[in-house]
Structure formats: C-alpha cells, structure tokens
C-alpha cells in the first residue's frame, strides 16, 4: 500500500509540530520549508489537520501552529485511515468494472492486507513517532540554502 502525498505531508507536519516547544512559534511556511514542500500544499494539509482537531493555528503576531493534545496522542492508524479515506486498494467496481469481480479472491485478500497495515499503525501514537532519534533530527531540519 502506498500513502497519498497528502497523508505523507500530514504525518510529517504533525511529527514536526510534536517536537516544537510550547513557547516556540512555528508557521505553516516554516513547516513547509523544513519538509521541502510547496507552501500551498502544506497550507491545505494544515487546514485539514485543523478540521480534525489535531493541530491549532493562531493568527497574528505570536501566532503559529501547535499540536493539540488530541494530535499528540492520536493513533497513526486513525490519522492515516482518516486522511486516506475508505477507498479499497483496487477499484473492482470502477469504470469499467473488473470482469473478475464476481469470483475473484484478490479483492478480499488485498482488503485483509490493508487492514493488517492499519493494525500495525493503530497502537503507535504521534508522540511515539518522534522519540529519539527522530525528534532531534526533525529539530535540525531547515530550509536548504538556495544557490
């Protein structure tokens, strides 16, 4: 299974915010730059994470992004499922529908594999993802100098 770029960015953003000191202010632009992604993409991710209650954004002077307690203790499985949606790995009912769909075992097998993937992620929290050595590495990231 491959995650969408959106989910990948969201997981990296919450990881970056998880290592931010409470008194530190981090902006969407700073998170985007540290992850080397376009600001517009990160802004969409931040909006979605706000709607989920995973992060909060404060506007104005002294504003910035912060991971909520819900975000810090969120299951990586829950977050991934929520961001990826309920789509199946294969589109048996797509256009055109697969001619094997009435007797194929692949769909059920791939669904079991997908659920196994999420079961591995379910017990892992965002806070656990940023334990050493990941946390210090995240704090060292910054935008690359331009030539």
Provide the gyration radius in Å: 18 Å
Largest sheet: 2 strands, antiparallel
Order of helices and strands: HHHEEHHHHH
User: DSSP strand (E) fraction?
Assistant: 5-15%
Tally the helices: what do you get? 8
Cα shape: elongated
* Beta strand count: 2
Which quaternary structure do these chains form?
A: single chain
**What share of residues is helical?**
40-55%
Strand adjacency order, main sheet:
1-2
Average pLDDT number: 87
Structural class: mainly alpha
Structural write-up:
This protein is mostly helical and 147 residues long. It has helices at 5-18, 28-34, 39-51, 69-72, 76-84, 106-121, 126-129, 134-140, and strands at residues 55-58, 64-67. Strand 1 and strand 2 (64-67) form a beta hairpin.
Q: Which secondary structure elements does this structure contain, and how are they paired or packed?
A:
Blueprint: H1 5-18, H2 28-34, H3 39-51, E1 55-58, E2 64-67, H4 69-72, H5 76-84, H6 106-121, H7 126-129, H8 134-140
Antiparallel strand pairs: 1-2
Helix pairs in contact: 1-3, 1-5, 2-3, 5-6
Essential attributes:
single chain, 2 strands, mainly alpha, two-stranded antiparallel sheet, 5% strand, 147 residues
Quick overview:
With 147 residues, the chain is mainly alpha-helical. The chain contains 8 helices and 2 strands.
């Amino acid at each position: 299974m491959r995650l969408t770029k959106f989910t990948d960015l969201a997981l990296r953003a919450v990881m970056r915010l998880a290592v931010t000191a409470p008194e530190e202010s981090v902006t969407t632009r700073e998170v985007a730059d540290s992850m080397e992604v376009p600001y517009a993409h990160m802004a969409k991710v931040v909006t979605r994470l706000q709607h989920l209650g995973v992060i909060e954004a404060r506007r104005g002077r002294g504003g910035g992004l912060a991971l909520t307690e819900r975000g810090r203790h969120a299951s990586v499985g829950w977050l991934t499922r929520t961001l990826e949606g309920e789509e199946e790995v294969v589109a048996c009912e797509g256009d055109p529908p697969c001619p094997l769909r009435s007797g194929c075992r692949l769909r059920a097998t791939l669904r079991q594999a997908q659920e196994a993937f999420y079961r591995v992620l379910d017990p892992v929290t965002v806070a656990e993802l940023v334990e050493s050595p990941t946390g210090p590495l995240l704090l060292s990231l910054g935008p690359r100098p331009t030539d």
